[in-house]
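note to self: dont lose this again. the chain is below, predicted strucutre after it. 114 aa total, dont forget to put it in the shared folder this time
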Amino acid sequence: MSISEDEIKFLAYWEENRERQAKLSYQFLMGLPYGLLFSIPLIINFFMGKFWYKRADAVGISQFNPMVLVIAVFLIAIFVAIVSRKFRWERLEQQYREIKAKRGKEAKRQGEVD
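---
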């Protein structure tokens, strides 16, 4: 149950980058493309509606302000961006802690053997 070379590389990488990736601004900027990928189809669907059902488009535009949709889509993009990167950070942090515990157990076991 020895620590692999990949785990050693991950420990070095995560110790160097974990504080930077924990910042909210970093999570927002790195997650924004994923958030936009998730939310842009909503805007496209709304504006493409005029091509597939004209009456629904006429009623929708007269009773609905499209800026509300744009604001909602950007809020969704921001939420998805931050949550997805926060989840990724938590997953990597958990992996880091598991490898550190594994390394500690291995060091303790080697200390007992010697």
